[in-house]
Amino acid sequence: MRHGSKRLSSVVCYSNSMIEIFPFIGAFLISYIGVSIVGFGLYLIISKVRGTSPWDEVEVRHNVSYQITSRFLPLINLIFWVVSAWFYFSFSEATLGNALLVGTTWLVVAAALDYIAFILIKHPLSVDHKGFYIDQIPWIYLTYVAVFISPIVFVALFG
Description:
single chain; two-stranded antiparallel ribbon; 6 helices; about 65% helix; disordered N terminus
């Protein structure tokens, strides 16, 4: 579906902006899964270089390898999410209104998935609320800013 299409089955409208559902989901998955793989891979590499096991200190506040990795996550996220914006806007009109809507929606969905995946579901890498929202300051919030601004950056540079 390209600009001006009237098919509503795969479109969510908000004001004068709209989200193309299937490209939106594809773009979201490219970044969310890609960032997770690259971020985890970087964490494993940093752990190896430091000569530690990635499982030695799972608590974020005590895990030096993760603290080093987290400094790279905002940039990794910005790169992935701008690429996803390129993918998404190849199916939708690249306007500031659409960029704001897509960025806001990506941010809300990513934050909700992070909450489920890293706080609610218990596994070796899960953390509590403090470990996620306090111990990762400022990096977690810079990462969320990167998710939000990526479509805006794309539109400003290429739209």
